[in-house]
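Try this one yourself first.
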């Protein structure tokens, strides 16, 4: 009898667990549903497509280095980007993408052209309408679980781009907004795993924008706090390549033609 009861109990437990798993799976929204809700929470597709550029100013805080830098970010459709970070006692660190060339000017290491994964990361950051192009950018999308991120209930979505690079993004169960993301990023220091939290959302000209971005990597934390955000006030001339970068591009073309 005891064996029969134990067997019945085990069978019932399996059925309950299977049922619970089935319910859980059914309760998880698809990546498409999560992203559509995120777009709506961000202001909606019409508002996003209705803007052509964004300019933001703020500061980058690096507690471990005891440093705070002033930051300016300009980005325009379809894929233009310029970031300027003014480092105290060092100078301005600048990086950009003009639709073709990805580059960086570092006062400590000099100018350089970006290639490979570094260029790929910058191109993804420069995609002005990326929030509307998930299906194009990520052939593989999967809702992994309902979990927690930054102390909030979140849907965990796994994304794999056409190069096979994997990124995990987290979306708020309550608001639908993106809470953050994590994955490998390539920098001058090599490839590192970075976790980024998005917070302090604010409505700006019909768009809902995260005013604070906190990134953690290799035991260090960097926090970018935006102070001003404006749309459709960026002159396209800001994306013109600096003379030092033009020289590198010319040299690269000359080398390619001579090989």
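Now uncover the answer:
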């Amino acid at each position: 009898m005891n064996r029969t009861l134990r067997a019945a109990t085990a069978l019932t437990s399996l059925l309950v667990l299977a049922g619970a798993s089935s319910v859980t799976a059914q309760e998880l929204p698809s990546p498409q549903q999560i992203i559509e809700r995120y777009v709506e929470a961000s202001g909606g597709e019409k508002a996003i497509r209705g803007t052509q550029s964004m300019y933001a100013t703020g500061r980058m805080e690096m507690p471990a280095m005891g440093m705070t830098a002033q930051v300016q970010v300009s980005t325009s459709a379809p894929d233009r980007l310029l970031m300027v970070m003014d480092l105290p006692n060092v100078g301005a660190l600048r990086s950009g993408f003009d639709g073709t060339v990805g580059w960086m000017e570092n006062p400590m290491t000099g100018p350089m052209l970006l290639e490979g994964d570094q260029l790929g990361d910058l191109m993804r950051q420069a995609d002005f309408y990326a929030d509307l192009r998930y299906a194009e950018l990520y052939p593989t999308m999967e809702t992994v679980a309902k979990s927690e991120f930054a102390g909030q209930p979140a849907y965990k979505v796994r994304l794999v781009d056409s190069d096979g690079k994997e990124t995990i993004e987290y979306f708020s169960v309550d608001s639908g907004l993106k809470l953050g993301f994590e994955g490998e990023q390539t920098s001058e220091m090599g490839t590192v795993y970075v976790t980024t939290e998005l917070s302090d959302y604010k409505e700006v000209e019909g768009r809902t924008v995260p005013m604070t971005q906190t990134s953690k990597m290799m035991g260090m934390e960097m926090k970018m706090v935006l102070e001003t955000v404006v749309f459709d006030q960026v002159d396209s001339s800001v994306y013109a390549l600096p003379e030092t970068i033009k020289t590198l591009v010319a040299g690269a073309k000359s080398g390619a033609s001579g090989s």
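Discussion: Confidence is low (pLDDT under 50) at residues 1-25. Helices lie at 2-27, 31-41, 45-49, 116-126, 134-137, 243-258.
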